């Protein structure tokens, strides 16, 4: 635990974590999310769990802070002490609710991290500001679509004009910050599959119950620790399920499915199975042997949507497949187009370059122990 005091020696900001959370951060700390939805009952201070997702796509808590106020100074203090506790390993990406002071602190303390604004908060704000359900639905579609940036800009201009909101301050402001929320601008930046801070909800649910009936700091800390214990118990159950049971296979690509079932956690396997089912929607339009490199290039089109094409290059030396859709770089799970080419090349397994360790049953195999972290198992 680390804390700071004010001029009167009263508690100002504090943050705590334990060795399991710190060990988890070394495996899954590539993407973090945080918000300050809840305040403690006694002093009204914001409670700020810093969370991520594990190999089962379930929420895990890396640290929790209770801060004096929501100024950029307090957020900077939290992020600075958080990174110090995590052996100065910066996250690749951060997801927040869009608080300006928080944004300022992120830019200052972790300037190289990709930043995404919570899609759930943005949709809610769209409805609150524009007050048109049709606009909110269209805005949400713009936010989530895997368009190119050029396609997004065309669509955005057309939506803004269609709803006649060109001069609305909320629309102008969000148009200017589209690189923080539009999938088109965030593609190829790694966010696992986190689009919103709704993942903080499981922790916030524990806090909501605790804060209803209890008041002291100690009550808040106990509620957080209870929530973390429940999450860890769920992880153990998911570990057991993934390692000791076999999922039902549903395609004729038996070798691929068996290989994936063996290496991936159940949750990742189900996502892979969905990719397996949908790769049949694509066909190879053109095959080009590059003279300048060792790569074979393919142009794929989608069934009934011939205009939708994807370029895939396959490097025979390294068995690397790169697709123009950039889904693998964004969510770290093979895309339908890559899988279609693997099938075409008669592969029966996934090469190591196409397997992200945070999706596998072994993702925590090299996690540091208490001894590696140089701390007692009790507290940071
Ligand atoms: Zn692709």
From TrEMBL:
Kindly list the GO molecular function terms attached to this UniProt entry: zinc ion binding
Alphabetically sorted, this entry's keywords are: Metal-binding, Zinc, Zinc-finger
The SWIM-type domain is annotated at: 308-346
Name of protein: SWIM-type domain-containing protein
Q: What is the species of this protein?
A: Hibiscus syriacus (Rose of Sharon)
């Amino acid at each position: 635990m680390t804390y700071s005091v004010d001029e009167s020696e009263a508690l100002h900001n504090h943050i705590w974590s334990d060795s399991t959370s710190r060990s988890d951060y070394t495996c899954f700390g590539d993407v973090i999310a945080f918000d300050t939805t809840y305040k403690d009952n006694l002093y009204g201070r914001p409670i700020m769990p810093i969370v991520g997702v594990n190999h089962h796509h379930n929420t895990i808590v890396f640290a929790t802070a209770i801060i004096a106020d929501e100024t950029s100074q307090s957020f900077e203090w939290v992020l600075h002490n958080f990174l110090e506790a995590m052996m100065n390993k910066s996250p690749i990406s951060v997801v927040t609710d869009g608080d300006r002071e928080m944004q300022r602190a992120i830019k200052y303390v972790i300037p190289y991290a990709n930043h995404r604004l919570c899609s759930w908060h943005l949709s809610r704000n769209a409805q609150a500001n524009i007050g048109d359900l049709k606009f909110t639905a269209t805005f949400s579609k713009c936010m989530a679509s895997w368009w190119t940036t050029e396609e997004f800009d065309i669509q955005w201009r057309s939506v803004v004009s269609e709803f006649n909101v060109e001069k609305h301050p909320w629309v102008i402001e969000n148009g200017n910050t589209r690189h923080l929320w539009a999938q088109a601008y965030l593609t190829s930046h790694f966010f696992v599959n986190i689009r919103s801070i709704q993942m903080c909800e499981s922790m916030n649910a524990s806090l909501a119950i605790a804060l209803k009936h209890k008041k002291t700091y100690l009550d808040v800390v106990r509620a957080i620790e209870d929530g973390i214990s429940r999450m860890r118990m769920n992880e153990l159950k998911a570990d057991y399920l993934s390692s000791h049971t076999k999922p039902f296979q549903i395609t004729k690509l038996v070798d691929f499915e068996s290989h994936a079932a063996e290496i991936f956690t159940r949750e990742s396997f189900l996502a892979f199975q969905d990719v397996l089912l949908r790769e049949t929607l694509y066909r190879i339009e053109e095959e080009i042997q590059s003279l300048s490199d060792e790569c074979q290039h393919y142009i794929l089109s989608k069934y009934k949507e011939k205009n939708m094409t994807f370029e895939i290059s396959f490097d025979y030396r390294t068995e690397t497949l790169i697709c123009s859709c950039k889904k693998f770089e964004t969510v770290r799970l093979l895309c339908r187009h890559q899988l279609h080419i693997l099938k075409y090349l008669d592969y029966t397994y996934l090469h190591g370059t196409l397997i992200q360790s945070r999706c596998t049953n072994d993702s925590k195999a090299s996690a540091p122990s208490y001894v590696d972290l140089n701390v007692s198992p009790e507290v940071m």
